[in-house]
Amino acid sequence: MRLILLGPPGAGKGTQAQRLVARHGIIQLSTGDMLREAVANGTPIGLKAKAVMDAGKLVSDDIVIGIVADRIEQPDAARGFILDGFPRTVPQAEALDSMLAEKGLKLDAVIEFKVDQTKLVERILKRAEETRARGEPVRKDDDPEVFKTRLEAFNRDTAVVAPYYAERGLLVAVDGMKPIDEVTRDIADVLETV
Fold first, then answer.
1. What is the per-residue pLDDT across 26-36, written as a single tens digit (0 to 9) for each?
2. CATH number of the domain that residue 11 is part of
């Protein structure tokens, strides 16, 4: 099972990805984590990425796709994977589709978390309060100003990825404002049909 989870920050993608990993024995892939791992391991693509980052530049789509391509060839990805936070743009989505096709693979579904963005700020503030109450450090992205900046970036850059996948018949929307267990059930229902 190969999935993409789309939606703005705070929509619940991470929570649902963890549940999908546990239920289906697939892995969650974060491009940021994969990038850091490739650099740390000194892989050929990791060395390219390091050179770009050391120069203070953004890593190109080609390098990111190369890192994803290398990572999905690892044994733990054989049963499938969830991409969370990637692709962020239509060119990345097109490059991902091409790379998967070259490997004889395809996506099973793209799940979009539909949310009321005005209520997301409240959700993030609540998450930060609960984290503080447990005595744990609060995530940097749970700062309201940082969160609003991330939300603006999502609306500007990433929201266009959903129509791309809708045109290909892969996009399925779930109501991300429902309680967590209901969202989990909705996703399970979606996956029974793919």
1. 999 988 788 88
2. 3.40.50.300
